[in-house]
Structures are given as structure tokens and as C-alpha cells.
Amino acid sequence: MNILMICTEKLPVPPIRGGAIQTYIDGVSSLLAKEHQITILGRDDPSLETDEYMMDIRYVRIKSGTFETYADGVKEFLRTNSFDIIHLFNRPKLVKYIREVATDTRLVLSMHNDMFTLNKISSEEAEETINQLDQIVTISNYIGKTISDLYPQAESKLKTIYSGVDIKRFVPPNSQNAQRMRKIIREENNLPNKKVILFAGRLSANKGADILIQAIPELAKRHPDIALIIVGSKWFSDNKVSDYVAYVRALASRLPIPVINTGFVSPDEIQNWFAAADIFVCPSQWQEPLARVHYEAMASGLPIITTARGGNPEVIIPNENGLVIENPENPQAFTEQLDYLLSNVTQARNMGLYGRELVEANYTWERVASDILQVWQAIEVKIQNNIPITTDSLVTEVDSVIQEQDIQNQPLYLIKGEYEEDIMTNHRSRKEKLKSILLYELSNKNSLIDSLLEKIDEKAEDKYASNINQIIQNTISELEEMIIQVDSSYQKEEANSSIINDVSTAKLYYKENSKNRRKSS
Known about the structure:
By secondary structure, the protein is of the alpha/beta class. It has helices at residues 20-32, 67-79, 94-101, 123-132, 141-150, 176-188, 209-222, 243-253, 270-276, 293-299, 331-343, 345-362, 365-384, 393-405, 418-426, 430-444, 447-459, 468-491, 502-520; strands at 2-6, 37-43, 51-54, 57-62, 85-89, 106-111, 135-138, 158-160, 195-200, 226-231, 259-263, 279-281, 304-307, 322-325, 412-415, 497-500. It is built from 19 helices and 16 strands. Helix 6 (176-188) crosses helix 9 (270-276). The longest helix is centred in the C-terminal third of the chain and has 24 residues, at 468-491. It starts with a strand and ends with a helix.
């Protein structure tokens, strides 16, 4: 398919100036381009071409500055370029602009922040935006919940796809590459034998660097061999000193331990600082969507101390790969947790190694790209079958079953010989067949579900009886047995060519058997 990915107006892609969304797009785009034709639309930058191809991906960059300027540029681009799917990032307000010129293109929205709040988009526009989307991908369950709490109709379209990290750049401490980076950073900053605590993030009050610094004086009394590294600046690629940055540096200057303030670090060098550290701390004070530094710390084999804010705890298994602080506004809470890790070196090391295992299993860019491809493939099935955008939660499930089993709203032709054997093998799983039939029928609200409801209603003397779940399960089991019998009869079919439609046959079979059972009762 021909797919457009639209980044936000803040920072360019590739992420030469940083940015979590930009890093995300850059991490998955080359993998997605192996399966589809990819165009990435983003903001302009003096160091980047306005239109270029790299690794079979087209990059188009338009003027930014304000959201409105950027939105107008998106519209102009779409007037002369069409796509099967447009996958936009973190800007629900952009949907109405897109719809002015791309009226029928299928839309996916990836959410990295809580941009559906009433102070960012009106409820009327948000509801219409949700109606226009096939899928809403979120980077954490927390972000999904912020949307569904306000707009329950969005629930069926929400899908959490956790972010990823380049595990070849961020490497575990026992690797030669990590030891090399660690040695260089520590020698350059006179930290050869220190236990290094790392903060990495924007220097703003909601990121909590000042709270972490306030935890250090008491900690230094217990562990005088510690050092603190603060990686980050006011804004991505911006080393201007704001009031908060000045405040953080003033606090740090009073500490009785070495403190390294790096300022902004280029994304292609940030892994060096993770390799130099022993513990990573994310002292977020706000409802963080899910800071990507968690993935980088885990990939680097560092034990993590984070806060119970937003989506951050979703990637932490307490005492396995990190610790979660419930009251992050209290510096003493950080003192105690840091003291615990520094006093239990073996456990801290094991936490870091387990975090690395979690990353390798769950948080690679390959896994993220695979999840995105599944979303796109489900939409491709809808396009092929002229299935409209819908808020029906069951349609999403039906699409998944259709994609897995290639069961579409068409008759299944059984031809005697090798074709019949192949087809029946694909459709042999009774539970999967039952699921596809039930979900498909329910999504179309036709007579099979009506028959099921009638049957359940007959069996339940009291519709609110406590055993209603068991009645439903028994009824479904009866239908399952019928499906098996239908399969068996088809496998014995002698005709050279016969047409079988699973859905219609199951309806007829269920109806006839229901009549026979009523007669015999």
C-alpha cells in the first residue's frame, strides 16, 4: 500500500534535534518500508532537503512555525498526493484539515500525549475526529484511558503499541561496546570509580530534576562515592538557560558530590551517557504518557527508579527491573530507593540485566513495526471489502480474524482434490471458525445472533439469573458442536464443485436443529 506518515510540527524527521515522536517514526520507518511504500511528511529544517529519498522512503518537509501554518501545508501536499492510509501522530486537530482534501483515505492516529483533553480540542471536534479514524494507537494504556474516559465511543478503536529502542546502540554493561563508552565518558569527566546516578530528559519542573537533586545530600552521607549526571536542556537542541534550568544548576552546585550538566546531547550520542551510569532515575512529577528514556535505560542494562505517574509504571515490574515511587513530590522517597539500590549492588545489577531481557523480548523496533503492520493490514482488508469506518468494537475483532484466516464475506469454493484438503486444513480449527462466524454475524446483526439470543432467552427463566453466563456458555457449546458436524459433512462431500458459505450454512443448520429439538421436547 501507499502510506503517508505525518509527524508533528515541532521537530524534523530524522530526529536530528531529538524528540520522542521523531525517534519513534525514525525507528520503525525503514522496517515498514520493506512492506509498503512510505512517505514521511514533517516540518522543514535548514539542514535538511525539502523533498528527498533515503532508504526507499520519501521525506517531504513543509513550513511550520504554528500549527495552522503546518496544517495548511499538509492540505496543500494532499491536494496533489493520494494515499491508501494516512498515519498521523499526536495531532487529532489535524484530522479535519486532512478530511477537507482526502475525503476517503483511511486514517490512523498515534497518540503520544493526552491531546484529547477539553483544553486542547472541543468535545464536538473530538467526537467527529474519532468517527473519522479506523484506529487510535497509543504508546501506553494510560493515554488510551485518558481518551476513553472522555469519549467511551473511542474504546473499540484504541490499541496500545508500546514504543521501542535500538538495542544495537543501547547495549548491556557487559558488552565490549558499553565498556568502551563507559570508560571514555568516565575518564573525560573524572568519574573513574564513582557510582553514577543518571537523569536524562528535558529540564522542566514536570520532569522533576530538582526533586532528584534535593534527594542527594542525605544520600551522599550514606554513599559518599556517588556522582550525578544530568543530561538535558530546556528544549530539544536548545541550550538556553531558563529560570528553571538556572534553579536546577544552582541546586546542583551546592551538592557535596560531582555533578555533570551536559546540556543538550545529540540523539546519536545519548547512549554513551547511559553506558556510563549505574542507576537511572525518572523523577517525573506530571502524568507522563510513558517516557521513552525507560526503554533506553532498560536496553542499557540499568536498574530504574521511576514514579507512579501516567504510563511510566507500565514497563516496570517492581523489584524485577526497577522500583516505582508512589509519592514523587517527596525527595526523601528518592533518597530511600537510591540507598536501597546502592546498598544492594547484586540485586541492582540483576534488575538491570532483567530489564535488558525485557527490552530484547518486548521493546525492539522490530516488534513495534510488526504491531503497526497488523493495524495497517486490518485496514487493508476493510478497504478490499469496502467495509466502512465504524465505531462497532466487534468489527475490529472480525478484521483480525479475517486477516488471520483469510475468511472474507465471499463463498468458499471447495474443489475436489488438493484444493479441498488445503482449504479444510485452513478452516479446521473449530474455535477459530466459531469465533469468526459469531463475530462476523454479530457485526452485521443478522439472524444467527438473533437465533442465539432467542435460544438463550428460552433457557433463562430469569433474564437476570446468576447462572446466565453458564446458559450462554452452554448454548455456544451446542453451536460449536453443530459447526463440527457441518465441517465433517463437508469433508465427506463427493461433488466435484460445491459452494459453501460458512455463515449462511451455520445459520440454516442451527435453525433446523433448533426446530428438531423443540419438536422432541
